[in-house]
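User: structure tokens for DUF2264 domain-containing protein, please.
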Amino acid sequence: MNPVADNPLQAREDFERAVEQLFEPLIAHFSSGKARVRPTASGAHFPDVSAELEGFARPLWGIVPLGVHREFDRWSLFRRGLVNGTDPSHEEYWGEADDYSQKHVEMAAIGVGLMMTPEHLWEPLSDAEQERLVAWLNGINDAQLHDCNWLFFRVMVNVGLRSVGARHDWAFTQSSLDRLESFHHGNGWYTDGPEDEGSPIDYYLPWAMHFYGLVYATCADADPDRADRFRNRAEAFATSHLHWFDDDGRALPYGRSLTYRFAQAAFWGGLAFAGLNPLPWGVIRGVWARNVRWWLNQPIFTDGGLLSVGYRYPTLKLSEPYNSPNSPYWAMKAFLPLALEPDHPFWQAEEQPLPDLPERVVQPHAGKVICRDDHLVALSLPQDSVHGREKYTKFAYSTEFGFSVAGRTPGPGRAGHDSSLALSLDGEQFKIPSSSAGTLVDGSTLTSRWEPWDDVSVETWLAPAPAGHVRVHHLETARTVHAEEGGFALDRTGDDDASAFSHDTHGTTALATYPNGVSGISDLVAERTPAVVSEGPNTNLVHPRTVVPTLRETYEPGEQWIASAVMASPDPTADWEPLPELAATEEGITIETHAGDRLLDCTAGDWHNGRASKEI
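Assistant: Done. Predicted tokens:
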């Protein structure tokens, strides 16, 4: 059941109503004391009380902005929950928030509520109720937090307490902000934590680092120099982040926490909230509205109208250990622009499409080459992360084809090998990179090194090409290695009619065609065996049933040059002529187009100190 199915999501009033429609199905799952929400029996790695607090707090990210200028008839529910959840004598008490507790995350929405809607969440409380709320929130100043965007939760809480004249720790707030600013690496690009500890660049940059920074810059008037830095960085980042969105509003699926879905629009709402328009207001409103609208027209809801765990459809296979049934409501952060006056330029502007954007954009900070063809693709360098190798180390991430995670049974095709080179020692247990020994951006060529075992290494070059991209791998191995290389995962809807799809595996090309598109991979050097492999159900972010064109080979000890051309299109009639087959020399490999244009010139590199030295 889609609770917003009848909502056109065009005017401001439509988005206001959408907040209420999204919240309404949750109401039946509130506890009697209104401090906890438990919609299903599934859980996360943290205690149930924290998951149930998520269900209470996360809707506030949308309800608080809504309540700034519009009546909302459920404030008494939230006041009752605040009073009971912070009362140690009440059975629904949330408990103290110890070091690294998930409760710190949920405190942030309450802090923002105190900033923006104190008349609903603070002033009606008695003195004793206020003091208990203040005592509970101040727990965030007594605990250790993860050294990443979590430090902003302390900032949001203390700014909220400060705004109502309550006890808080401003000095600790400033030191936390100093630490957060140390994660900035130039031109608006942050890592989510210390770079030397493998902190990745992903959506926590726009929907956390920038989002909270813009809230702080707008609501905290005692720190103007820092506020200006936050604004300037967000303006610089906006022109880069625009390339992560396609004409329909879809954003590149990449990294962890993708179950937060239309939180992808939160950065654009944060810009508007801070009064910033590095792009025309119509462009900012357009990319924001299209993203929210696209998401709310996807099958992302449960039968009861709740936001599900998953991406474009419900599936737990893509979740992180910290995803509870209530976690997806972090998406409500997208509705921050509702806190603006109705006559704000953001709301007065007509939606505009994306401006003319180049077909290829290199983003060195992110380690990506953004390719805008008939679908939006990011060629990508691997990043270290504890949150799932498939989410950070694939060669390409696409708005149309998504990416897949590993299946639960071993064997060929079960390693989530789309857009990857998967290796195995026994032919059964395949794996793709979980980390990288080094990376390099050189023009529009991305280079990385992977060392899956002590005596096996792979150096990879990745570059855009007409109708797709090319990959070159230099494999050095002291033992026999089984290899599978996959193209893009393709939606196999329509396979109930044998005449509607085809698997073409002639020569060294694997090509799959279905009603919703075509995907192919072709070997450019050797005689790898082509196959079209069915992935495990519900392992792809975008489509529950997919196939992956794949090349297979077993390599004996020694050195090997491996090269591939890869393409995919949502148009099943799209033509594709792979690049000419090439012969590698001992020194390297060169790839050219049919017209003779040089695409890639690779020489096996010398790697040292985690960086590459090579000729390209």
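User: Anything notable?

Assistant: The CA atoms of residues 13 and 403 lie 35 Å apart.
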